[in-house]
Design a protein that fits this description.
The complex is a heterodimer of chains A (112) and B (113). With 112 residues, chain A is mainly β. Chain A is 0% helix and 49% strand. In chain A, the strands form 2 sheets. In chain A, strands 2, 4, 5, 6, 9, 10 and 11 form a 7-stranded mixed β-sheet that branches. Chain A has a 4-stranded antiparallel β-sheet with strand order 1-3-8-7, with no helix packed on it. In chain A, a hairpin with a 2-residue loop joins strand 5 and strand 6. Chain A is globular. The model of chain A has no long low-confidence stretch (mean pLDDT 95). Chain B has 113 residues and is mostly beta strands. Chain B is globular and about 40 Å long. Classes of the chains: A mainly beta (112), B mainly beta (113). Chain A binds chain B through residues 4, 31, 40-45, 48, 55-56, 91, 93, 95, 97-106, 108, and chain B through 4, 8, 34, 41-46, 49, 89, 91, 94, 96-106.
């Protein structure tokens, strides 16, 4: 089966600019996650979707981060405006009910 | 507060030896624990899940133990190979759902030929 697809792989922007990441989960996976992974740390959950509804966004900095999952399939994560501390890898994962998560290879974001 | 601890120092081991990685947690009573592997520039890949009522789980050269009294999981790779070099992450469930997990910082394993 095809894995979780993410794009772009790399993105470099200046602070205060906006950026968007795209994720296509594994077909049939109802649950989709966005994680932030700062260098040397484990992934930190930002938001979890079940189909096209948000299950948990308690750790999403809502003043600058937003995410949506239209039609319960693809998802986008946006940062506006970006800060220097947002430099990280943004990982998308998907899963079936009560199954472990499958991760994409992430988008590496650098803020100048 | 809930905390997961993995040895942040890299573990260097000679090829053919058994590598043992540790995951300690506090203020948790997890129903299960997961181990993932992450290669540079890649996303984590799920390896094993062990439930609270299981003492040990094996998959090929991998073995995981789960001691709920010590609040510790050990992850063993027997007959280690250079291809096993990677960062290994443990993950425990967050409250509120089976599918949400929180990750440790990971331990980098280097297998030396």
């Amino acid at each position: 089966e095809a894995g979780v697809a993410q794009s772009p792989r790399y993105k470099i922007i200046e602070k205060r600019q906006s950026v968007a990441f795209w994720c296509n989960p594994i077909s049939g996976h109802a649950t989709l996650y966005w994680y932030q992974q700062i260098l040397g740390q484990g992934p930190k959950l930002l938001i979890q979707f079940q189909n096209n509804g948000v299950v948990d966004d308690s750790q999403l900095p809502k003043d600058r981060f937003s995410a949506e999952r239209l039609k319960g399939v693809d998802s986008t994560l946006k940062i506006q405006p970006a800060k220097l501390e947002d430099s990280a890898v943004y990982l998308c994962a998907s899963s079936l009910e009560a199954e472990p998560q499958h991760f994409g290879d992430g988008t590496r974001l650098s803020i100048l | 507060s809930q905390k997961i601890e993995q040895n942040s120092e890299a573990l260097n081991i000679q090829e053919g030896k058994t590598a043992t990685l540790t995951c300690n947690y506090t203020n948790y009573s997890p129903a299960y624990l997961q181990w993932y592997r992450q290669d540079p520039g890649r996303g984590p890949v799920f390896l094993l899940l062990i439930r609270e009522n299981e003492k040990e789980k094996r998959k090929e050269r991998l073995k995981v133990t789960f001691d709920t009294t010590l609040k510790q999981s050990l992850f063993h790779i027997t007959a280690s190979q250079p291809a096993d070099s990677a960062t290994y992450l443990c993950a425990l469930p967050l409250s509120g759902g089976y599918q949400k997990v929180t990750f440790g910082t990971g331990t980098k394993l280097q297998v030396i030929p």
